Every structure is written in C-alpha cells, then in structure tokens.
Write the structure tokens for this entry.
Amino acid sequence: MGSIVAENRKSLMLFSGQGFPELADEIGQVLGVAPTPSDSYEFANGELFVRFKESVRGSDAFVVQSVTEGVNRWVMETLIMIDALKRGSAKRITVVLPFYPYSRQDKKHRGREPISARLVADLLKTAGANRILTVDLHTAQIQGFFDGPVDHLFAMDILAEYVEKKFAGRPMTVVAPDSGRVRVAERWTDRLGGCPLAFIHKTRDPMKPNQVVANRVVGEVEGRVCLIVDDMIDTGGTIAKAADILFDEGAADVIVASTHALLSDPATERLKNSRISEVVVTNTLPLTPEKQLDKITVLSIAPLLARAIREVFDDGSVTTLFGGLS
C-alpha cells in the first residue's frame, strides 16, 4: 500500500479578540462552542502579545474581532492573532469583522490620498487570513479589495423586523441621509412593503471630516414616520441635521436604523438633544455605559454571525441567508 488514509475530520474553533469579547461569547453560545482561551497582554511600550492555550493544528479557525474605539490597536491585535494561528498550523483562517475598519477610505477623492480600506485587506491577507466575514460594508465594492472569499452579511432583516413590529399601522417613509445611501434605502422600501422613499440633499466639505451641511429633503414625508437608514453613526451630525429638516418638512416622527454604532464624541450628546425619538442599532460594536441612552435600542447581531459561521464551516451557502441578496 503506497499511502496512508486518514479519516476526514473537521474542527471549528472560535477565537476572540479583546475589542468586544462579549460578542464572541454570545456567538459561541449560539454555535455551542466556547472561544478558545488565550494569553493576551500588552508590553510596557505598547506592543501586543497573543498566545492560544490549546492546539489549533488542522482547525477551521474563526477570529472574531470588533474593531471599536482605538481602531489601530484592534487591527494590530487581529493581525497578530492571524499570524499565531497560521504558525500554529490552522487549516483555514476566517476573520469575522462585524465592522470593517477604515471602510470609509475606499477611494481617492483627491491626489496623494490613501485607499486605506484596500490596505487593511492586504494586511489581513499577508498575515494569513483565507476569508473575511463582515456586516454591512460602507460600500459593497470593498469586497473586491480582498484576494479571497468575502462573506458580506446584512443587518437589514434584524432591524426591519423590529421597526415593523414597533411602528405597525403607521404611514412610513424610508429616508436616505444622502444620495450615496439611496440604493440601501431602496432595499429597505422593498423590505417594508413598498413604502415611499425620500433622501436628504446635502453637501460635505472633503477638507473637513465629520462636518455636513444638509440642504433639503426630496420625497414625501409630511405627516409620516420617517425612518433614516444608514450603515453607521459616527459623530451623529448627519442624522441630527437630517431629522431637523424632516421635522421642518412636516414629519410626524423621526427614527433611525443603523448597523454600526460608533458614536464618537459628541454623538451621544447630539442624539440626546435631537428630536429623533428612537435609534435602533446592532451590537457589532460595544456601547460603553456613557454612550447608552434611553432612545438607543440595541439588537443582537450574534445569531446572524453564528449562522454564517456555521454555513462557512459546513461549506454551505451564506447567500441563502438573505434570499440570494449579495
């Protein structure tokens, strides 16, 4: 006999970064597997160290990292975890990034600018990642920056189900906060049964980040509940100004649905003082106690991520989770 035949065994192992370990724990509870214990600490000069306490040889490894405030630290920790898994002979490494870092830097607006979203993809690939699993990219074409499979998940169904139950029977208009979100808003109108669509015409100075000038609303909003949809809330300036314009145009109520709650200062104060009645987000990123408001509702993304991880592990179809939407 000229060969040795081994039983084809697969093992799913879950690994958690320190950005938001509670989310990895929640995903593990849904999957029925606990995150692999590790030693993770920081040297006096800021260097990071990670070592896993169990053998990872031959495993199908899933690294869950929420790249929250202090983005560069968590990106670096993710790269170190990937490298440790690669050197530990993991068979396949899938990086689960509920929020993809640097996603807003996906193109050049002017000369001599970086395309940092592409750089992050290159770093992940060079470190040893075989696959990326992420939620609601800022722009879908970021998938093409990574030289390998990218599973792009959508939080819309989770958010829309809550909105449908909470505001059932009230006339609603889906509002895109700018022209770039119109395609996303169109998906929302389809999901909510074909309700009207409106968008805010705004201008932004590329020389001044996080500063927006909102001009006017285009669409039917008078006497209706206006649902502003966006992929992320950073400083809150866009949605706060959009809400003021919607109320000026006669909106009965304004609510917001967004996947990623970055809530960088002064977002919490802006939301607290705004006329928005409710902000519905997912827990792709942690909300620290000082960022939690009564008007903020947090829905769990863990069941969706767990289902996608299971499909990847079983060589199934992630696309079927969204009825073929990609």
